[in-house]
From TrEMBL:
This is CBS domain-containing protein. Residues 11-68, 90-147 form the CBS domain. Pfam families: BON (PF04972), CBS (PF00571). The keyword Transport does not apply. Coiled coil: none annotated. Residues 144-212 form the BON domain. It comes from the Bacteria. The keyword DNA damage does not apply.
Length: 214
C-alpha cells in the first residue's frame, strides 16, 4: 500500500503554549514573537483546555465582542472582551486532532469546526503538536520531481515490481503521464488508481500497452 501522509507527518511539534493564568500582555507577546495566530492553553499535565486566537485578542483590544462590534448581546463574547487572562479569553472546549488522522479527515474537521488550526493530542489527551490549514495544504504542493520519484519508486517498483525503464514517467504541474508497457491489461487501471492516490497528483494520463511476456 502507498503511504498516505497523516497529521503526524505535517504537524508542528514544537508548540508555543499558555497556562490558564497567563496575563494578556504575555499572550500578545508570545503571538508576536512566534508569529502565530493561535496558541493552545494547557493544564498542569499538558492537556489542552482551550485556544486563544488572534480574533480573541482583537475582542479584548477593541473592547467589543468582535472587531465589527456585532453580537453585542452575547454575554460570553462580552466576557472575552473584558478578559485579563488566557482562561477568560480562550475558546473552550477545544477541538483536537490525532496524529494518525488522514489529511482529508483533518481538513473536514477544520471546515466543520470553522477553525484554522487544531491542537494534536496523544492517546492520553496530552498535547504533542498543532496542525493548521497551511500544514494540510503543504501535502498537495509538491514538486514534480518528488511526485515522479514516488511513482517510479513506490508504484512501479515496490508495488508492481516492474523493471526500471519499462514505464516512462513524466510529471508537469502535478499531472502524471505514463508511457510504456505493462504485462497485463488489468494492470493499466491499477497503475492509474495507485498514481491518483499519491498526494499532489492532479491527473493521470496512462498511455500504456499490455504486452504479455512470451
Amino acid at each position: 500500500m502507498l503511504h498516505r501522509r497523516t497529521v503526524g507527518d505535517v504537524m508542528t511539534e514544537e508548540v508555543v503554549t499558555l497556562r490558564p493564568d497567563a496575563p494578556f500582555h504575555e499572550i500578545v507577546s508570545l503571538m508576536d514573537a512566534n508569529d502565530v495566530a493561535a496558541i493552545p492553553v494547557v493544564d498542569d499535565e499538558g492537556a489542552p483546555v482551550g485556544v486563544v486566537s488572534a480574533s480573541d485578542v482583537l475582542r479584548h483590544e477593541t473592547g467589543m465582542p468582535d472587531a465589527q462590534g456585532q453580537d453585542g448581546d452575547d454575554e460570553h463574547a462580552w466576557g472575552k472582551a473584558r478578559a485579563r487572562t488566557a482562561s477568560a479569553l480562550m475558546s473552550s472546549p477545544v477541538f483536537t486532532a490525532r496524529a494518525d488522522w488522514t489529511i482529508p479527515r483533518a481538513a473536514r474537521e477544520l471546515r466543520d469546526r470553522h477553525v484554522k488550526q487544531l491542537p494534536v493530542v496523544d492517546d492520553h489527551g496530552f498535547l504533542i503538536g498543532i496542525v493548521s490549514r497551511s500544514d494540510l495544504l503543504s501535502v498537495f504542493v509538491r514538486s514534480d520531481d518528488d511526485i515522479r520519484d514516488e511513482v517510479e519508486r513506490e508504484v512501479l517498483g515496490r508495488i508492481l515490481g516492474l523493471e526500471e525503464g519499462t514505464v516512462e514517467v513524466e510529471v508537469r504541474e502535478g499531472a502524471v503521464t505514463l508511457r510504456g508497457d505493462v504485462p497485463e491489461p488489468r494492470l493499466v487501471p491499477v497503475v492509474v488508481g495507485l498514481c491518483q492516490g499519491i498526494d499532489g497528483v492532479v491527473a493521470v494520463d496512462a498511455r500504456l500497452e499490455a504486452v504479455r511476456a512470451e
